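INFO batch 0412 | record 1 of 1 | parsing
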Amino acid sequence: KVYTDLFNLNDEHEMGHIKLSRSADVILVAPATANIISKIAYGISDDLASTILMATNKPVLLAPAMNVRMWLNNATQRNINTLRSDGINLIGPDIGSMACGEYGEGRMSEPSEIIKYTIDFIEKINFSPLNNYSALITSGPTREMIDPVRYISNESSGKQGHAIAKAIFDLGAKTTLISGPTSIPDPVGPEIVKVKSATEMFDACESLLPTDIAVCAAAVGDYKISNASPEKIKKSGSKILIELEENPDVLSRISKRNSQRPRLVIGFAAETENLISNAEKKLKEKGCDWILANDISNGEIIGQDKNKVHFISLGEKSEWDTMSKNEVAKKLSDKIVNYFV
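INFO prediction complete | emitting tokens
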């Protein structure tokens, strides 16, 4: 049956738009035009489709379809970011020829791809092998204050750690993401703990123990300012001396606990030289179970959407293909499932 009217005398005695919003496992919008995307982002419900999307408590999938300039328009991209942060999943769009004769990004994915994604999505949301497990994930950079307005930090975006937290949560684990200062949206689902400094991150991790899984993906600052100024430092025409002292080593302290040690501890090694040997050394010295190592010397990893990972444990060394950080998160979470189940 096809429904078109928001208020239909034959359906509204059962509140048809509410019934429709509850009766499916997922709601798929294909094609998702710039107009319907805008309505969802702003909560506008002035017709049957937008009202169902406003009222639903089920996952929503969108397959965008529009002219390349409409897709790249700042308003559309703002709306897409809003929808992603709200937990709405996108299928495509693809790059290709369009009905208007132009070429570019905005072409709707092929129906077969949309059907496959939807079926895989339904299977995934019903698959919860980590349902009885808990996990903590660290992500993003840390900041060490020099004075109230200046700090030392690093360029970590948090994209990889956030993706891992989402992937593990989607497999059913009770997941907490401990995030340093980032500019990306928080993943929908995991509990979020916001921190700034390495010490705050370590304290947050300690407070969440015991847990089954710990993934230390944050780029934690190795040093903090031992002579930080309580007031803003003014120019004086002369040099100033900033003294550094080591921060607590979050990965090492979690890995080497005598009690309440997670059953699986995973660390990351971002290296500019001797990738494998340095990662193997870190695995041994820190006492963790697995290391994901990546070469950051070319500037193509930190802050980017793709990652190139070497997986290292005492019993395995493997090089993963270059893939999106979401795909890395999926592959890692699958290995975690195989470890426990």
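INFO post-check: Residues 325-340 form the longest helix (16 residues).
INFO record closed
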